[in-house]
Fold each of these.
Amino acid sequence: MAYIDIYNLKTNPTFKNRVTVAVAKAATDIFNEPNSTTNHAARVTWANAALVNAETVAERMLWSIVQNPTIQSNGLDSTDNDIQYVVNSNIDIFATNKPEK
């Protein structure tokens, strides 16, 4: 995928909305995971922030999401499962790193 295509995917309103839903779903799922889950406290903090403002959290994650090879291969045709998988795979990274202001 060419850089401009990656940028266009990242800024596509429908794709952004799908990532936002995946973020909200992931946040909800975290509240149901055992306290013994690795990095649980940071994950809960991330989940709280994600449910308060899923759009902002999704926007922070979008560059990471669009770098995934499966997402790049399928672009706007990426499945909800693929998007969810990539969001879930990035939670610990974003939960343990404070965003730049």
Amino acid sequence: MRPNIISGSNYTDNRGELLYNNDFDVSEIKRFYIIENTDLSIVRGWQGHEIEQRWFSVAKGGFNIQLIKIDDWINPSKNLDVIEFDLNSDKLNVLHIPSGYITCIKANVHHSKLIVMADYLMDEVKDEHKYPLNYFNNIKK
């Protein structure tokens, strides 16, 4: 399975704006949290999960999210392909990240907020893998 965007939309009338995503099935979600970086220079990565899935949606602002499918969790290749997504809060789009991927997250608008949803409770599985920011050769700046 590959990462994909589940498209949301919006509706505006004289009362205001409604953001919605009628195609996002939340039945697998067991917990969620919000990330807000202190400034635009903060980069959160590389981190990911062999078993767990994640869903990202921007509540405010915008984020650049880079993904890598890991080939070996102990000693991953340094030249793996990078998939890049830019998400913003204009629509309630949701980025689905299947198990087996790591992420690198950077806000591109001040005071941005990223909702992160997971399909396992905290400490339900020991599945977090982290790598140094400069480990991979193909990262996009």
